[in-house]
């Protein structure tokens, strides 16, 4: 029996370990190893040199891209969190269970629909001669240049992350004990005070998890800055693609990747600590 | 209805408009005659569809996409189910690490995953092949399959499986006649969702596909040229495909809940 038990157990446990081990852990580890490899005659050779790190981290272009990417991701996370909150609040407290479910159902859909085509649609909508400027023009405004700017990139980021942030916040808010809110009311708290002292702390985890996902997704996004933000100045993801596609400088692109992974890890760890602080 | 309620609803409606505007716009523009669409709209035409779908390379890309999505769906749903079942049934020492392995890939920026895949698959001699895309997409899609199957398993009475053993069923038999039937809707749902994930993914596919372009990779390459409303036509078809898959996936997983 024990022999058969273990075959059964291993049969179900092993696929994940084998697959994600061979095709997720190993490739990412290989990326780390590759940062020390030498590129000679357009070919990579195993080596242990620090040149790739020095050449990449020593360039102003890298640091400009780094701070731009970090700043945009943080900004997008904050803006998305702020924009999503009233919507999540409405969904959690002002809607019937049925409507809420239907709304969340709808919000899941865009997450799985081609972001590339949606970005292209924004290109057309926001173009100088596009529909938005046509409407604004009819009331005597504009035309405004909205593409190839930080604004354009932000539209892309928000399209990407807003549905997800609303979903996380709605889950967080729905889990709040209603008695807590009524107790605050009965004790004479104003709506604003109830929000700040009762609802926000109780929904903290959902709010932070939403913001973390927004940060992670925008930090790594390549479509918004490239097709809506004008790609100049480049973000880190654009830098990786440029370095990879033009020439064979894969090790240097790997250095940029490692810096991104490190940053994402540190930021998420810090944010998760705050999100779950005092939760036990 | 109070003023606050109305305000909340209007706000929610505006947010939905923003989120769905590009999808709706792509649909409208795909039937619009203007190359640079604006308001008022041009006249109705199906010309962009005719032009896009008369390109042989589009049909080739569709073939690649379907093959890759089908293989990815089967593989990632199997791995996802196996992982969800392991999590449901067993406790073991390295379980947190095991679950991290299951859930981390979606948090990795796709550009980095694309580069890592390209570098590693080149070492294995698999870069530029459809197998390479399937491998990468399975890594990405497995967590979603795992989540759906785990959700379904959490709705199952854990004593059900034990009851089957007590009645003399072996573990494989209990799996076949108790657990799999119970999880069937989740498995079909996971197949749909993972197919959608693969069908829409373009960054990793772009890195590793070589000449075996999938539909989104083809869109990406057209986009690097000029404005081309054919993208709206192709995009609308892509949207309809992935939306149907995701809606089907959600119906399957949420519908049954009322009966339990």
SSE layout:
The complex is a heterodimer of chains A (280) and B (260).
Chain A: H1 2-34, E1 38-40, E2 43-45, H2 51-57, H3 60-93, H4 97-111, H5 115-125, H6 131-138, H7 150-174, H8 178-186, H9 191-202, H10 204-220, H11 223-228, H12 236-245, H13 250-276
Antiparallel strand pairs in A: 1-2
Chain B: H1 3-30, H2 47-53, H3 56-89, H4 95-103, H5 110-124, H6 130-154, H7 159-166, H8 171-200, H9 203-208, H10 215-223, H11 230-255
Task: Label this structure with key terms.
heterodimer; A: 280 residues; mainly alpha; MetI-like fold; two-stranded antiparallel sheet; 13 helices; globular; B: 260 residues; 11 helices
Describe the structure.
The complex is a heterodimer of chains A (280) and B (260). With 280 residues, chain A is an all-alpha fold. Chain A has helices spanning 2-34, 51-57, 60-93, 97-111, 115-125, 131-138, 150-174, 178-186, 191-202, 204-220, 223-228, 236-245, 250-276; strands spanning 38-40, 43-45. Chain A has a two-stranded antiparallel sheet. In chain A, α4 (97-111) runs antiparallel to α7. Chain B has helices spanning 3-30, 47-53, 56-89, 95-103, 110-124, 130-154, 159-166, 171-200, 203-208, 215-223, 230-255. Chain B has a single domain, classed as MetI-like fold, CATH 1.10.3720.10. The mean pLDDT of chain B is 90. Chain B contains eleven helices and no strands. Chains A and B meet through α1, α3, α4, α5 and α6 of A and α1, α3, α4, α5 and α6 of B.
User: How do the SSEs of chain B run, as a string of H and E?
Assistant: HHHHHHHHHHH
Radius of gyration of chain A: 24 Å
Beta strand count of chain B: 0
Number of DSSP helical runs of chain A: 13
- How far the N terminus sits from the C terminus of chain B, by CA atoms, comes to 34 Å
Shape of chain A: globular
Q: Walk across the major sheet of chain A and give the strand order.
A: 1-2
Major beta sheet of chain B, specifics?
none
State the major sheet of chain A: 2 strands, antiparallel
Total of domains of chain B: 1
